[in-house]
Amino acid sequence: MTGMPRQIRRLSLVFGFLLIALLVNLTLIQVVNANDYRDRPGNQRILLAEYDRERGPILVGANPVARSVETGNTLTYLREYDSGALYAPVTGFYSLVYGATGLERTENRILNGKSDIFAVDRVEQLVSGRQPTGGAVTTTINAAAQRAAYKGLRGKNGAVVAIEPATGRILASVQSPSFDPNLLSSHNPSEIREYYARLEADPDKPLLNRPLVSLNPPGSTFKLVTAAAALASGRFTPDSILPGPRTYDLPLSDKKLRNWNGKECGPDAKVTLREALAISCNTAFAWLGNQLGADALRAQAEAFGFDTGFEVPLRAATSRFPANPDDPQTALSAIGQFDVRATALQMAMVAAAIGNSGRTMNPYLVQEVRGPDLSILQTTEPRAFADALQPSEALALTDMMVSVVDDGTGSNARISGVRVAGKTGTAQTGNDLPSIAWFVSFAPATAPEVAVAVVVEDAGLEEVSGNGLAAPIARAVMQAVLRTG
Amino acid sequence: MTVVRRQPTRRWVELVLLLFAWGLGVLGTLQVGAATGEGTPSRLWITVAVVGGLALLMHVAVSIWARYADPILLPVATLLTILGLIMIYRIDVATARRAELNDSPPPTPEVYSQLTWFAIAVILFIALLILLPDHRRLQRYTFTFGLIGLVLLVLPLAPVIGTTVNGATLWIRIAGFSFQPAEMAKIFLTIFFAGYLVVTRDSLALVRTKVLGIDLPRLKDLGPILIAWLVSLGVLVFERDLGTSLLFFGLFVSMLYIATQRRSWLFIGGVLFLAGAYAAYQLFSHVQSRVTIWLDPFAYSDTGGYQIVQSLYGLANGGMLGAGLGQGFPNLVPFANTDFIFSALGEELGVTGLFAILMLYALLVERGFRTAVTVRDGFGQLLAAGLSITFALQVFVIVGGVTGLIPLTGLTTPFLSYGGSSLIANWIIVALLLRMSDRARRPDAQVIAMDEAPTQVVRL
């Protein structure tokens, strides 16, 4: 009987080895190879962790335009967009398959609650073991302006950006056509892929964030930059007399530039700067461009925000003034043709800066960040980008823009009882391509509350199309802002 | 004549450890409540109180009827049971939430039925301590227990009451209650093995021939091991219960080795096991698929390998420290509160928590073995060792299975898994071990009286 304990001890040694095998195997799985398992494509847990948290809402005013709702699926929360297509260029989408875009992407760490600004909450979560809840992102969007712009663009391809001149807050950012982010943020991968493929194949490019990334020649709206450069040069006043012939002989070439209506710009082909802007005289501005030179034009353009990539925090395309234009190219650039390219955001910034006594503000889309308990954690302060004009020069240019609306090409932007400053534009993207209608404006002319840029693609070839297609939309957006104050 | 020198009973150690286990349970419950946002409904406080009461009841019973028993066994088993209850509650919360979101009727929380099973287990635990003052009484009924064990083992094959669940026929259903008789069978068969081997071990130990330096027993003594082998194969083939089959054969061979002190039995057992395993692999598709899945679970991640793959993902998600109680996704693994409760714990408590749990099992087995080497009778030694081996083997087979170390077989994780049969059977084993350790450590009044008799002093 004395022998048995020895066998028991030996057996316990065997079981000890089995225990060690279990421990080693567990360490391999949970520590050494854990990341390999986590990264395996079939592993839902990382995704689930993201979808298991209640993602914070994106707000317009007090209303959520993107919010998480509980579902019955394995994925606990579904992202819902109440007016999906309307706010798509702002919110973007939050997709299982294609990741996130828009504010959903740039503000991800706020929305999923992982940002360091929640550090205080984090400590509390560590103690309570509670899942972090996302913070809320309040946008600068004015719902009425956004809706007015969206309504105005219906049936057209184009974009609208509205800015509050004094701050740079983006009040509206609208694209047409748009898409339904709900369909890209669903929990059904095959549905998502199918819808995405359809959007990709659409020749009208509904996935394109037109207001921020579509670059178009600004056409006559760029005359605001040329006029600003003229005033800033000290060599010209609104009453300076410019030559405004029927055609302008482009220097160093035998090409001729003609006015849009084929007529001279004034009696004896002489026109004041104010008058030239009001009737959008191409020959006068081409001449002016050559007088000022490409460098002066570029410097003025850059003071308005050209050649800078803004992150609002969505990344906007960089608007460009050509690098080394020769004289005929400079003349064309001065009227917003040749290689000048601008986003709707950029042209809204030009109008806003003129309205804001010449000061260009950095545009922004996020007003404030709130914690899960709705306490304000972060507020965006307006920041000046550059002083593009002296206040007196800005005032003079504003007066000229008011003439455009009151007596010139921008009559469709008139709002009764409000002085509106504006500028029309039409640009050709190529010889045979359809042209683009522009309208940029701000109102009221003194202490403006809103500056707008409207782009309508596939417009007619006439200069009137800026007034005919784009100005009414700008007017509706301005009215919407003025009404909501 | 009174007992002068008293063996320390260490009952206070047991009480302190029990309080510690209960305190951990309270903290774990609060953690789950806070992390899942469920809070702690009053029903949960009642549960916490009932668990504390049951633990205290067992402590009192042990103090009265087995006062010299090992003070570690009871708290360790209690802590494991409490950990199981916490995890079952945590999975209840996840299941209920899923149902709520699906607008399906709320499922019955399983933690309360597990608590009921625990209460029944405690009653049987105490009853056993009272009704069985000496474990040697069990030896009288060696063959009766053997028969009961065998009947229990084949009961799921019986018509009407036998039930097949998830491909394995290991349940019986009587009057609405289901029971896994194999869990009870393992106790009866261990008693039978102990009683049988203590009598026959001398003849089984006889060496007849020596082959290749290995002592081989007489051919006619091969009978018992062949019968055990055939029964195990029968369980595997007819009930498709790989785990139970493995457990019984491993248990029998280990006990045979202890009883006869002949390594040859381990060798013969190993050969028989390999032969049986090979034959089963060749003959039965369900064994084949288990092995194929084990070799590369990810190749079958949508079908047969789904459980093990989800289990591995869960464990990996747990990492070093775990997602935290209530913060993982343990319910992504099928059978999270039964077969895969170890993975569920691993996801939320991490490798750290699993090491701690495995150490608790190691402690349980070690205290069992310690009882085996200190108990004075051969039957007790074999029984205590055998019962401890059932814990060790069962934990190895199921934990190795859910972590992919060995092919997955369905066995319950002792004390942790949801299920009455398993909980009751394991608590009865704890009661038996306590009874034996009490006998082992109890000072023999006669001996002490002799040692300290004045006559001895005079003689000096």
Supply database-style keywords.
heterodimer, A: 485 residues, Beta-lactamase, 6-stranded mixed sheet, 5-stranded antiparallel sheet, 41% helix, 19% strand, elongated, B: mainly alpha, 3-stranded antiparallel sheet, 16 helices
Low-pLDDT parts of chain A are none
Can you list the strand order of the major beta sheet of chain A?
3-2-1-6-14-15
- Chain pair forming the biggest interface: A-B, 47 and 55 residues
**What about the largest sheet of chain A?**
6 strands, mixed
| SS element count, helices of chain A | 19
Global morphology of chain A? elongated
Task: Give your account of this protein's structure.
The complex is a heterodimer of chains A (485) and B (460). With 485 residues, chain A is of the alpha+beta class. Chain A has 19 helices and 19 strands. The mean pLDDT of chain A is 86. Chain A has a domain at 213-366 and 381-484: DD-peptidase/beta-lactamase superfamily (Beta-lactamase, 3-Layer(aba) Sandwich), CATH 3.40.710.10. Helix content of chain A is 41%, strand content 19%. With 460 residues, chain B is mostly helical. Chain B is built from 16 helices and five strands. In chain B, the strands form two sheets. Chain B has a three-stranded antiparallel beta sheet, with no helix packed on it. In chain B, helix 11 (306-318) crosses helix 12. The longest helix of chain B is centred in the C-terminal third of the chain and has 34 residues, at 341-374. Mean pLDDT of chain B is 85; it is low at 446-460. Chains A and B meet through helix 1, helix 2 and helix 3 of A and helix 1, helix 8, helix 11, helix 12 and helix 13 of B.
Topology:
The complex is a heterodimer of chains A (485) and B (460).
Chain A (H helix, E strand, L loop, with lengths): L3 H29 L1 H6 L5 H8 L5 E3 L2 E8 L6 E4 L3 H8 L2 E2 L3 E2 L1 H5 L1 H4 L7 H10 L7 E4 L3 H11 L4 E6 L6 E7 L4 H4 L4 H13 L8 H4 L9 H11 L7 E3 L3 E3 L6 E3 L11 E3 H6 L3 H11 L1 H11 L22 H8 L9 H12 L3 E3 L4 E5 L5 E4 L4 E4 L3 H17 L13 E8 L6 E9 L6 E10 L4 H21 L1
Parallel strand pairs in A: 1-6
Antiparallel strand pairs in A: 1-2, 2-3, 4-5, 6-14, 7-8, 7-19, 9-12, 10-11, 13-16, 14-15, 17-18, 18-19
Helix pairs in contact in A: 8-19, 12-14, 12-15, 12-18, 14-16
Chain B lengths: L10 H26 L5 H24 L7 H29 L8 H22 L10 H13 L7 E4 L2 E7 L2 E3 L1 H24 L2 E5 L2 E4 L5 H16 L3 H19 L2 H21 L1 H11 L10 H13 L22 H34 L3 H25 L17 H22 L3 H7 L2 H6 L1
Antiparallel strand pairs in B: 1-2, 2-3, 4-5
